[in-house]
C-alpha cells in the first residue's frame, strides 16, 4: 500500500512540476535593460543595426514595423506597450537606432522574450 501511495505522490509531483513549468516566464516589473532599439524586420531578416542603419530603422518604426531591444550580449526583446500607459513605448519607437535604457517587465513565451516598456531614456 505504501508503494502505491509513494508512486501516486511521485506522479502527482511530476504532474505539478509540468504544470508549473508553463511556457510563460516573468522576470518581474522594474527590470532595466540597455541596448539598441532595432526594427525587427531588418534586424531579424538581415542583421541590420547600428549607426549605418539608423535612418532605415526610424523609417521602419514610422511604418509600424515591430521594434525590439538588442542588448550588448546579443539578447533580443520584442518591445510591447503597457495598455494603461502606451506613451513610453511610443517614445521608444521614436528612438529607433539609438542606445537606450528601458525599464519594464520582462516575460517569455514560446522562446520569445518581450519587454513591456514602462520607462525609456536615451543613453
Tell me the layout of helices and strands.
Layout: H1 2-20, E1 24-39, H2 40-46, H3 54-62, E2 67-70, E3 76-81, H4 87-93, E4 99-109, E5 112-122
Parallel strand pairs: 3-5
Antiparallel strand pairs: 1-2, 1-4, 2-3, 4-5
Describe the overall structure.
By secondary structure, this protein is an alpha+beta fold. It has one domain (25-122): OB fold (Dihydrolipoamide Acetyltransferase, E2P), CATH 2.40.50. The protein is 34% helix and 39% strand. It is built from 4 helices and 5 strands. The chain has a 5-stranded mixed barrel. The longest helix has 19 residues, at 2-20. The model is unreliable at 3-26 (pLDDT under 50).
Instruction: Please state the CA-atom Rg, rounded to the nearest Å.
Output: 20 Å
**CATH fold-level assignment:** OB fold (Dihydrolipoamide Acetyltransferase, E2P)
User: What value does the average pLDDT take?
Assistant: 83
Query: Approximately how much beta-strand content do the residues carry?
Result: 35-45%
* Strand arrangement in the largest pleated sheet: 1-2-3-5-4
Domain count: the total is 1
User: How many strands in all?
Assistant: 5
Q: Provide a count of the helices.
A: 4
Considering DSSP H and I runs of 4 or more, what fraction of the residues is helical?
A: 25-40%
Major β-sheet profile: 5 strands, mixed, barrel
The separation of the N and C termini measures 65 Å
Global geometry: globular
Q: Helix-strand pattern, N to C? A: HEHHEEHEE
CATH class reads Mainly Beta
Can you tell me the CATH architecture? Answer: Beta Barrel
